[in-house]
Amino acid sequence: MTDNSTRLDHVVLWVRDPAASTAFYQDVLGLEPVRLTEHKNGEAPFPSVRVSDETIIDLMPVARAPRLTMVPGADGSTGHPVNHICLSVTETAFDALLERLRERAVPMSGVSHNSFGARGRAARNVYFRDPDGNVMEVRHYD
């Protein structure tokens, strides 16, 4: 794997209820909330969840869409489709995730094998949706 200085910093997802989405990502994926208290107190426009030391997912309230005018032509882009986000975890974490998805009756795809990704072929991967319909893929490599 190449060690280059470019890294994924964050992904922004449109969500209806940031607190509920944060709970989903915390409870199902085990991701740590960031700025949730500040968001609830009106001190931050949205919460995030931490994927790694260097990467977060921002959970942007869809109600803020009319205010996001910094990119010309971006008005009306709320809910613009993103195909999916993929997270890579350990084999143990993958097994635990499958169990949590089943316990919470979260609809999911079948488990696939040998799907290509950033680190080559993954041993297993699974797809499911968050409460706002964003498609998540989680995989583990050998």
From TrEMBL:
Keywords: Metal-binding
Gene3D superfamilies: 2,3-Dihydroxybiphenyl 1,2-Dioxygenase, domain 1
Domain VOC: 7-141
SUPFAM superfamilies hit by this protein: Glyoxalase/Bleomycin resistance protein/Dihydroxybiphenyl dioxygenase (SSF54593)
Pfam families given in the database record: Glyoxalase
PROSITE patterns: GLYOXALASE_I_1, VOC
Domain of life according to the entry: Bacteria
Keyword check for tRNA-binding: no
Protein name per the record: VOC family protein
UniProt lineage: Bacteria, Bacillati, Actinomycetota, Actinomycetes, Kitasatosporales
